[in-house]
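User: two proteins, same treatment. go.

Assistant:
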Amino acid sequence: RYTSVHIEELTVVARDTKLGPEEITRDISNLAETQLNRLDDSGITYIGAEVSADDVLVGKVTPKGETQLTPEEKLLRAIF
C-alpha cells in the first residue's frame, strides 16, 4: 500500500465590501454539518485534517444585497 501526503498553503482574505465586511466563520447556513466537520470553531480547517476534493477548507460568508432577497425575505424585512 502506498501513501502520499501533499501539503499546500492557501490564503483567503476577508475583505470589506460595500454591503459590509466578509466574515470567516463556521456558521454557514446553506451547508450541512457533515460538510463542515473539518472546520474548527473559527471556520478554518483544523491542523492535521484529511481533506479531499470538494471539502470546505474555510467558511467565508459575504453580505448579500437587497436585490438578492427572495420575496419572502423582503416581506419579513418590511414587517420587522
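Protein 2:
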Amino acid sequence: ARPVVRIAAAEASHGRLRLRVAATAAAGLGRLEAWVNGVPLPSQPASGTAAEGLFELLLGPGENTVEVAVVDTGGVRSWRVPNPAPARPAAGGLVAACLGVSRYRDAGLTLRYAAKDALDLRLALGDGEADVRSWTDAEVVAGVLPAIAAHLARAGRDDTVVLTLAGHGLYVREPQARWLFLPWDADPARVAETGIPWSAIEGLLAGCAARRRLVILDTCESGSLDDDAPVVAGLSIPGARGLRRARDAVAEIGLAGEFRASDRSRFVTADLAGGSGAVVLASSRGGEPSFESDAERNGLFTAVLLRALRGAADGVGVAGRVRDGQIDAAELVRFTAAEVSRLSGGRQRPTIDRDNPAADIVLPVLPQGE
C-alpha cells in the first residue's frame, strides 16, 4: 500500500513556517520530504511504521505553496500533500549566467550568432542592479562549470536566477538517452564523451538558494522529445551538421533568406521532475529546426525573446491587455511561441517545461535596446 502523510500542525511567523508532519507506512518509513514553491528541501530520515517530523521553512516573497510527502523503505512515495502558506511582499534581485558558443575549436561546428546571443542577453538582463555574467566561445568548457555555479550561488532565497545557453545541443540515445550541450572543445567524433550532459547543467543550480529558477535554451533539440517524433541528430556522424534538415525546412517555408537554419541540434530531456526545480523555456520542440535571423544577428528565438523582455510580452494573454511593467513565465512563452512560430512558418515552436509549476517567475520589463 502507498504510504500516507498528513500535516498535523502548521504555524507561521515572520516569514517562517513550522510544519509538524505525521506519516505512516506499512512497509516501513524511509524519509520525509518537503517542497516550497516546487523546490525540494533536505529530506528527513524516518523509521518504523508511524512517525512524526518537524520542518522549519523560510517562505519566499509572494504566494507560497508548501508540500510534504513520505517515502517508504521500498522507495514508494505518498501523494504530495499541500499546505497553504501566507504571502510575503515581493522582493529580491536577479542573478544570471549567459553562455554561448559560436567559434568552436573544431571549425566544422562554427555558428554565427550563439555567442552574440549570450552577450546581448547579458547586456539586456544586466541593466540596473542585476548581477549578470557571460561566458562565450573558448571560455565555455567543462572546467568553467564550478565558476558558473559559484556565480549563481550568489543569489539569495528571494532572488530570481536565470541561466541561458546558446549553441550546439545534441540528443543521444547511446549508451543512455540524454541531452548534451557542446562546449568549445567538443569533439564531433566523441560527443558522448566531450559534451556537457544535462545533469551537469542542472547541477549548476544545486548550490543555489533562489527558489525562482529560469533556464532558457536557444539550442537545437532543446524541447521535449516525443518517443514517436523523428530525431534530428546532425552531429552524431563525425563531420555531419544539422544544417541539412534545417535547410530543407527553409526551402519549404520560403523564408526569403532572412532567417537561415542554424545547425543547433535541439533537445532537453523532459526528465526534469523533482530535480532542479527550474522552469525551462526551450527555443523549439523535439524534431524541429531552429533558425537564426540575419537581420537581428541573433538566433530567431533569442531575437524574439529580447523583444518580449523589453515589453512586447507584457500583458499578452491577459484580458484587456493589462500592462503592469512585469513579465511572467506564461506571458513570456505565449509571446515567444506565437511570434517564433509565425516568423518560421510554424516550423519552430518554443515550449516550456515546467519542472516546477509552483515557481512564480516574474521579470521586470527591460529598457529598450539601442
